[in-house]
Design brief:
By secondary structure, the chain is mainly beta. Helix content is 4%, strand content 39%. The protein has 2 helices and 12 strands; from the N terminus they run αβαβββββββββββ. Strands 1, 2, 3, 4, 5, 6, 7, 8 and 9 form a 9-stranded antiparallel sheet that branches.
């Protein structure tokens, strides 16, 4: 059974809480694994969280930060240079494993995405350098777009999480051709939960996404 469109679309601001500008997780979405949080920090601000049974990637959307992780007595620190905005190029990122504690600290302030997925394996905390992110030009004509595969399935080792950025020029279509991910058909289709988080360059832009039932 397909879900009503008003459950698939979450307007800006309606998924905010005291710690996040956006917080979408399995409980709210009604699925099993995937989460997305957006953290906005003032200059000198920090955000601390425990990963629980999920693995997480910290990705700067605007600004840079320090990510500190702690697993028992082992501590690691990653300096993320970040970027001015998602439209200014690829960013470096940090991977934080399940069953750990993490802190994001930003001297100049910024906006940071936390992409997560419930998982079984505990992988090591790692730094993802921006120069190592594969950038792919996909599609042609008014379906041309750029895909930044920072945590694609065959690029960066995660247990359950897959995350990429897509930069779509004004007037072009993305996620084309129309497709679905609600069945496991080897070689044809993978069963995936998907969160699309949109940012628009400029004050007067808009976006349109069509979601249709598969049955």
């Amino acid at each position: 059974m397909s879900r009503p469109s008003n459950e698939l679309y979450v307007p800006a601001g309606t998924a905010a809480d005291a710690h996040h500008a956006l917080d979408i997780g399995p409980e709210r979405a009604g699925w099993t694994h995937s989460s997305l949080r957006i953290v906005e920090l003032a200059p000198g601000g920090t955000h601390t969280f425990t990963t629980g049974d999920s693995e997480w990637i910290v990705l700067p959307l605007g600004g840079g930060c320090t990510v500190r992780t702690k697993d028992g007595t082992e501590e690691q620190e990653f300096q993320l240079l970040g970027r001015r905005s998602v439209f200014d190029g690829v960013s470096d990122f940090a991977y934080v494993p399940r069953e750990a504690r993490a802190q994001i600290a930003s001297g100049a302030g910024g906006r940071f995405a936390l992409a997560g997925a419930k998982c079984e394996r505990r992988l090591p905390a790692r730094y993802g350098p921006a120069p190592e992110v594969p950038v792919e030009d996909r599609g042609s004509g008014n379906c041309a777009r750029q895909v930044r595969n920072f945590a694609a399935a065959d690029v960066f080792a995660c247990d359950r999480l897959i995350a990429v950025e897509v930069i779509t020029p004004g007037g072009n279509w993305s996620s084309y051709p129309p497709h679905k991910h609600d069945e496991h058909l080897p070689g044809v289709e993978s069963l995936l939960e998907e969160i699309y988080y949109f940012e628009i360059e400029g004050p007067d832009g808009f976006g349109y996404q069509r979601v249709f039932p598969s049955r």
